[in-house]
Amino acid sequence: MQYSELGYWLKKSAQWVDGYYQKLAHRPIRPSQAPGEFAALLPASPPQKAEPVSDIMADFERLVPNAMTHWQHPRFFAYFPANAAPASILAESLVNAMGAQAMLWQTSPAATEMEQVMVDWLRQALGLRQGFTGTIHDTATTVTLCAILTMRERALQFKGLTEGMSGAPKLRIYASDQTHSSVDKGVRLAGIGQHNLVKIGVDLSLSMDPMGLRQQIEDDLADGFLPAGVVLCVGGTSIGASDRVADIIAVAKEYGLYTHVDAAWAGSAMICPEFRQHWQGVDGADSIVFNPHKWLGAQFDCSVQFLADPTSQINTLGLRPSYLQTLDAEEVTNFNEWTVPLGRRFRALKLWFVMRAEGLDGLQAMIRNHVSWCHELANKFDQDADYKLVTNCPFALFSFQYCPANEDSNEATKTLLNAINEDGRTYFTQTMVNGQFVIRVSVGPIACTRDDVMSVYDICKQLQH
């Protein structure tokens, strides 16, 4: 394929995209395929000779869409949303066309400086105090790993980078049992070890217990451990639990511990001032993560980390060999020094497009609608004797059980979930809450309407036995 052909095929692909979105609501959300079935349709060996793009596009249209789970479907209520706003799709096509590697300021000045401005736009949009700076990573898993590595090095006075962990004090990281599994992965990859991630019990509000945290730190100090940091959650992945941020940070500060707030999903809701009470005290955090690629429409991947002071993270992750120096301009920001990968995509452009194309008014209206519709749907299940509302968080997430008389609710709920997902009109996932198998409903697709959300109840009633 030649560059001279590219314009023609981009127009063709744009036509396909238009048709895809026009028909998307009428597709089943998940494919009815068995593992390995799609791979069997592909040649086992690569082609020796070039093939016409027309053949490649025809095979794409014939094979790929029918084997995809359609995350942009208006009735996709599983996991958390991974939205792709139209403006973001457009921006990504431009980024892909330029093919820039934005690892240094000098390799893409606009990418670096737009990233600085977009992080500050988002800081203002979320109501965070002046002074926070930050960067854009791929996912919250990477951000959390960066934060945990920084906790490790601060606690070890930055000796772990050079001397390794052998012979180092046993570190402790603290979190509630509602935090995401990325915290577990982070302590493993950082060499701290799973056994040194201490999960603190939660209170009736599902917040980490501040007194329990203080007691655990005291016990660990007495036993010769070295506390290093605390990971808090706002809008936990399982059921949307949130820690009492101000109280937890106050305890952490008593012991000089680094704090990281995981608001990967619910952080987007903080563009609406009425939700900010749920992370009151967040201005005292050292590190905060939220994912615009979840609920704001800046498509995957786009995870923003705010930092009260980036110095410790740069000292942990930064490395500047001679071949990466910007001659005569060493005071420029090189964001590769703020994170793990050297290579970086131009992620800020889609934020610039989305925030301008939607405006804060549009984004706030979308989130308020999702929360309102989700609570309305939860109330319908709560008022039906066949169902039990198990959890309902302040944002757009709740969980429920199907409880037919004289049947095991866990098994009945599992059977209903399988029937719903096989039906294809909507899509849910499950979680466990105090031994109860529950269906988890997360409202967030950009394209969804109130009718899409309320159809969930009708679908459940049709498919219950």
Explain what this protein looks like in three dimensions:
There is one protein chain. The chain has helices at 3-23, 53-63, 86-98, 109-125, 140-155, 160-163, 181-189, 210-222, 245-254, 292-295, 311-317, 348-382, 409-423, 450-463; strands at residues 133-137, 171-176, 197-200, 226-233, 258-262, 287-290, 303-307, 387-392, 397-402, 429-433, 436-442. The protein is 41% helix and 13% strand. Helix 3 (86-98) runs antiparallel to helix 12 and helix 12 (348-382) crosses helix 14. With 465 residues, the chain is of the alpha/beta class. The strands form 2 sheets. Strands 1-7-6-5-4-2-3 form a 7-stranded mixed β-sheet, sandwiched between helices. Helix 9 links the parallel strand 4 and strand 5.
Keywords:
465 residues; alpha/beta; Aspartate Aminotransferase, domain 2; 7-stranded mixed beta sheet; globular
- Unreliable stretches covering 5 or more consecutive residues: none
Mean pLDDT: 92
Largest beta sheet, briefly?
A: 7 strands, mixed
Strand order of the largest sheet: 1-7-6-5-4-2-3
Q: What amount of the residues lies in strands?
A: 5-15%
